[in-house]
Predict the structure.
Amino acid sequence: MKIEQHTAQPKSAHWRFKLGIAIICLIPLLWLLVPLAAAADVPGSKVAALSGALFIFNKILLLLVIAIMGKAGFQELKQHIYGYMSSMVPSTEVEIGPMRHRIGLVMFCLPLISSFLEPYIDAIAPGLRPNSWALQMFGDALLIGSFFVLGGNFWEKLRALFIRTARVSSTDAA
């Protein structure tokens, strides 16, 4: 005797999932009230009270999302997120071209060299280097982005650096 499993969800599950996602999207938007209140010259004590109230309200909203979506909704959310993230992971089967490899190496090395030289530049010529958190964040994003530009084989090469018994094997007959 064969039992068929229905993968179709009832209509109520769809609206519950969408409502849960809407509430999850509302949570970070509520935090925009804090800088808006600060920009509107609200006293600091009231901005602090707003921050505390938002912190508690966010926890209540998360409990509400759990109640609305249920276990099935969270399973669906995990499937959507996992599917999206797995499509971003570089594949080890795809060979990248020489130009992409060069660009990736520049993206990889530039932030490392920059962060290595920063203390020496500051000691030699104080004030020469701009002290901007945005530039430092750009360097971090450049380094992380280089992993995706360099492809999955680069991850294997990087991993091999930390394995003592790893050996280089090349398919090129040079």
Remarks:
- Residues 98-160 form one domain.
